[in-house]
Structures are given as C-alpha cells and as structure tokens.
Design brief:
With 672 residues, this protein is an alpha/beta fold. Helix 9 crosses helix 12.
Length: 672
C-alpha cells in the first residue's frame, strides 16, 4: 500500500490535491507554518487514528474532509474521513471507493462507510491473515491481534521522533508505554515470525485433541466389548429370544453360530403400525411423517458433510506435500546468493565455475535463470501459505456443522420415540416393539465392535495418527521455535543496520560493533568491544537521526524482501532540523540574516561544509535505498531544506511551499 494523493475538501466546496509518486522519493519543502508537519497527522487520521491529532487552526477551520488515494498491487482505493465537529475530536464517518484506477471525486456528498469498516477493508487488502500474539504465561496483558494500524507505527517519523534519544518508534511512549508493548507484540507477525495460519493451527489442535479423546474412548469401549467376547453374544441371543426377535430355543456355544443368530436378529423390522403409517391422519401421524422426512434429510446432510471434509483434507494433504517439496527446492536455489557479486549476465562464462574458475564439463544455468526459478517458487509458496489458514478454517467449520447435524439427528430420533410412547398400549404392543428395538440396538453395537471384526486395530491406528498429528502441530506452535525465528529476523535486520551505520558515518560505526534493535526497550543498541551502548547514551542529534533512519529503513527492506503485509511507505518529517542549531552558535546579526535567508529559500549553503556534506549523505542514503527497493517502497519527506543543486532531490521535489503557497490555499482562508 502506497499513497498516490493526499486530498483536502474545503467547507466551501473546493478541492486541494497533493500528488505523490509511488515507488519513489517525494519531497515537500517549504517555510515554517505552512502545514508540512500536519501531513503525518492527516494521513494517520484518514487511516483510522483516534482521536484526530490534526492541529487546531487554519487546517481544521477550513477542511471538511481529509482523503487519500491509495495504490495496491491490483487496484486503487480512495478513502476519506470527515473532519470532526467543533465540539468533538473524532468521528467515525467515512467514504470509500475502489477501482483499478480511482478518479478522485470532485466532492463528497454523502458518507458510505465508517472508519472501523475502512480499517477492516485495508486489513483484507493488505492480506493480513487471522493472527494472535499470546503473551508468555505469568504476564497479565491480554492477547493482541495485529492489524495494519500497528504497522503504521513503523511508517511515521515525526520531527519529535527523529530527534529523540529515548524513543525509536512513532508514539511509542504514549499510554504508559502501551504503544511500545503493542509494537513489541505485533512486530513478530509483521516479520513473519508468527505463522500465517497460527490461529487455524490452534483451532485444529483443539479439534484434534477432542478427536483423540473420542478415539481413545471408542477404543476402550471396543476393547471392552471384544474382551467380553462370546459372553456378551450369549447374553444378547438370550435377550433376543426373550423379546421375540429369534425363534431359536437353543443357544449355541461357538461364536460363529452366535454371530449368525444375532445377524438374523438385526434384520427384524417394527410392525407397520409403528412404522409411521401414511394412513395415520392424527396430528401425531402428520408429525411422525415430517420427522421421518427430517431423518432422511439429516442422514443425507451427514453424508454430504463427510464428503466435503474428506475432499478438503485430501486437498490439504496435497498442498502440504507440495509445500515440503517446494521448500526443499527453494533451499537448493537459495545458493544463488553465491552469485550476487558476480558481473552481470553477459560477462560471465557459463562454462566456468563461478567459485573456483575451472572449466565445467557442462555449462551451468545462468544466475538470472536460477533467480527467476527461486522467485517463482517463492510466489507459489506464498500462495500456499496464504491459502492454508482459509482451508483449515473451512475444514473446521465443516466439522462443526457435521457435529451439529449429528446432534439434530439424535434429537429427531428422541422426538419420534416420544410420540410413539404417547400412543400407548392400544397401538399393537408398542412396548413390545420398543423392547425389540432396544435389544436390536445393543446387538448392532456388539456386531459393529465384535471380536471377529477386530476394529480395535483401526481404532489404535486412529489414536496413533491423532497423537502424531497433535505432536506435529505442537512443533509448529512451539514458542521456542517462534523465538528462534524472531532472533534470526532481528539478526538479519541488525546486519543491515550495521552496514548502513557505516555508510552514514554514525558514532561507534567502526565495522566491529554490531548494531541491533531492542524490542523490549524500543531502542537501538550498539555492541562495542567495551559494552553495549543504547541510543539514549549516544551523543549528538545527528546520530539520533541516523540511527532512527537506518532502523526504519532496515525494517521496511525486510518487509519488502519477505513480502510481508505492511504499508509500503515511510513518512519522514524535518530530517535536516538537527543541523539548525548550528546557525545560532556564536550568533550575530549576519547569522540571523542567514537564517531568514534559509527560511525563504531552503538553501543549505549557509551551513558549514561538514553539515552540508552530512545532509547530502543522508539524502543520498534515502535515494539509494528507495531505488534498491523500487517500485515496492515509497518515502515522503517534508523539510525546510531545498538542495537546489542536487539532481535527484529536484526530481523528487513534489511541491515548494514558499511565497504564500501552503497546504491550505490562501483563498480557503479568505473564504472563512
């Protein structure tokens, strides 16, 4: 998700569009009090921030609606949010459009949604799957589901954020560090540490434990019946003779003959009088007929649900098999990393080994071909991983429906039995027929579990399979495995931060001191040979700025390269502000004049050579990273400075807010 336009609608019907480039750097430069810093608050408010933090003054006085046109991979959406009424600091009134290319409306006549619905909509557009971070046992905070609002804390760096030595992320200290805790709990999901199908796996684990319990109970019953063997068969034959199911006067000794008699007994059918005669015109007769039809319908529904579950489970097994095979192929192809530093395609001889430079008997595939294969496999795996939680949810829902249908069928049988009981003795010995039915049910149960079928073998297999499957799921949900993946992801991000710290020439960036993120404290740590140094103990606002930038760019690089469901933009406000205090050192009249000149032109020529070089180094770093990630990442910068002699800066320049040009047009203010 990137921002195409920021749009304002005035209270008098005018429209102000600030166009932005997706996949690149966007710079808005201008004087103080022109509305630059308010852009972060406007974007945040459009995307669901409560309360509205847009400054009270000309903007809130003149603007009726704030809007964004957002770019997604296959479509655009236009989302607008109404300005809060004067006596309130928020509103849930919103407007939403989607198309392959959205045309920005001339005006917003009537809202069509709510900001809560917009949040859900964007979650789905980004592909954020059902997830839940459950804190370790012993901690009192509640489980938290990650949504795109949590990712936005990583997408904004206000001027206060950039110059803070005590906080790294946007708003992290708010609410007694409540925001920092939310970032800590949700960042593992955005890093891909928490499986996309974690919730579905937890549900599957619950269902499998329930199924295992039932299978063990069935096994115990079957083993009990099998152990009793012929003794139970003799008792059942005796009962069948007593109620009239069998005419035999002798009870055989061997199990085969006993079984044969019992199989005859289960062929008995109730008399016509209790078989729901169609001639029965009584109210109960009509009801019996309806219940009989319901039994047939529920039995058909049971069969259908079982077939749906079987089909889905077969598909899931096939998908798992493909995933395993594809992962193995991916690991083989990831050796392409060995080729990353070689000359490009036309300069390398495919018949020469890229490692030892010896001639090969057969030419090796080009690195580009291997990379293409790796990308194709990664895309296929992403599809399988995204589809898996939906499939598990589908199976779980069908299983719950199957259980409900079984309960309804049992309830229907009980209703039928109740009606028959109400008919009493005149209905041709109902009690005798009912006794036959009960004995017949016991016989059927015994026949299904009798020793000669030895169903205990199948039941033991079911128990073993369930236990194995539960162990597999528990391995996937293992918190130690999750922590290992988190450490791995943060290590990779730290390696990138360490490299970039050297490029920006930050303090302690000596090539021997690793830089890392500390999520628990929401800060950057530099591990020097003497001791670890947190950001709060590193001097100079220039260093604070640099470490803020490398941390956020490293996170977003990881998100892009791993196709994580996060917004693809970073909003940076006033990155050059840290150099302003130098204007006032040894202040004199000429310095004051220089500052006024800086405000009116944005020229950095009044700064020292060292400061000018530092500013250019920062902007070159930003341009280089965005070009590396293009077209999948966007940076929006608001600043006083204007590097008039820098070609890339001037190409990225969207608007200059000087000489009465501001975010809010002057005519809007004059109309108030």
């Amino acid at each position: 998700m990137q921002i195409c336009d920021i749009v304002l609608y005035s209270r008098t019907g005018e429209r102000r569009i600030l166009p932005l480039r997706v996949g690149g750097v966007n710079i808005i430069t201008g004087e103080s009090r022109t509305g630059k810093s308010a852009l972060i608050d406007i974007v945040d408010y459009c995307l669901g921030r409560n309360p509205c933090n847009i400054p009270v003054g000309p903007i809130r006085d003149t603007v009726a609606w704030y809007a964004l046109r957002l770019q997604f991979p296959a479509s655009q959406i236009f989302v607008a949010r109404q300005s809060p009424p004067p006596n309130r600091n928020s509103t849930n009134v919103a407007f939403l459009l989607e198309a392959s290319e959205v045309e920005i409306p001339e005006e917003i006549i009537q809202p069509n949604t709510t900001s809560d619905a917009v949040e859900t909509y964007i979650n789905n557009k980004l592909g954020i799957s059902p997830n839940l971070n459950t804190p370790p046992s012993g901690q009192t905070r509640l489980p938290l589901e990650a949504n795109f609002r949590h990712a936005l804390f990583l997408c904004f760096q206000s001027q206060n954020d950039l110059t803070s030595r005590d906080q790294l992320f946007h708003r992290q200290s708010e609410g007694n560090n409540r925001i920092l805790v939310a970032i800590k709990d949700t960042l593992p999901y955005f890093l891909g540490v928490i499986r996309e199908d974690m919730l579905a796996l937890e549900q599957e684990l619950t269902l499998n434990k329930r199924a295992l319990k039932a299978a063990k109970r069935d096994l115990e019953e079957a083993e009990s019946i099998r152990g009793e063997g012929a003794t139970n068969a003799v008792q059942l034959v005796s009962q069948a003779i007593e109620v009239g199911l069998l005419n035999s006067q002798e009870i055989p000794d061997n199990l085969d003959d006993l079984t044969q008699l019992l199989q005859q007994a289960v062929q008995w059918t109730p008399p016509e009088i209790i078989s729901f005669s169609e001639d029965d015109e009584s109210p109960n007769g009509d009801r019996l007929e309806r219940l009989r039809r319901r039994v047939r319908e529920l039995q058909e529904e049971l069969t259908r649900k079982k077939n749906e579950i079987d089909d889905a489970e077969r598909y899931a097994q096939e998908a798992d098999g493909y995933s395993v095979a594809a992962h193995e192929q991916q690991l083989r192809l990831e050796s392409i990393g060995l080729f990353d530093n070689l000359p490009r395609v036309n300069s390398h001889d495919a018949s020469t080994c890229p490692l030892c430079s010896q001639q090969l008997p057969e030419p090796v595939p080009r690195a580009e071909a291997i990379q293409r294969s790796l990308r194709d496999i990664q895309q296929d795996l992403e599809f399988v991983e995204r589809d898996r939680p939906h499939l598990r949810e589908y199976i779980g829902e069908r299983q719950r429906e199957l259980s409900t249908t079984r309960q309804r069928l049992q309830t229907t049988y009980r209703e039928i039995e109740g009606i028959l009981a109400e008919r009493g003795a005149p209905r041709q010995s109902y009690q005798e027929a009912l006794a036959c039915s009960r004995v017949q049910g016991r016989i059927s149960l015994w026949l299904e579990n009798a020793v000669f079928t030895d169903e205990t073998i199948e039941l033991r297999s079911r128990v073993t399979q369930s236990e194995n499957h539960i162990r597999e799921i528990e391995v996937l949900l293992d918190p130690e495995e999750k922590q290992a993946r988190l450490v791995s992801a943060l290590n990779r991000i730290g390696l990138q931060m360490t490299q970039w710290a050297g490029i920006l020439q930050l303090e302690h960036a000596d090539g021997q001191s690793p830089v890392s993120l500390n999520l628990n404290r929401g800060t950057v740590i530099v591990d020097t040979p003497q001791r670890p140094i947190p950001l709060s103990q590193i001097g100079s606002a220039e260093n604070w700025l640099g470490y803020h930038l490398i941390a956020h760019f490293a996170l977003h690089k990881y998100f892009v390269e791993n196709s994580r469901p996060t917004p693809r933009f970073l909003f940076i406000d006033q990155p050059t502000q840290v150099y302003f205090p130098n204007l006032f050192e040894n202040a004199d009249v000429s310095t004051s004049v220089n500052f006024e000149s800086f405000e009116s032109t944005g020229s950095i020529e009044i700064l020292s050579n060292q400061d000018r070089e530092s500013i250019r180094r920062i902007f070159n770093f930003i341009f280089d990273v965005v070009e590396l990630l293009a077209p999948n990442f966007q940076v929006i910068i608001t600043d006083h400075a204007n590097l008039s002699d820098d070609e890339r800066f001037q190409i990225a320049l969207v608007e200059t807010w000087r000489e009465d040009r501001k975010l809010v047009p002057l005519e809007w203010l004059n109309n108030e």
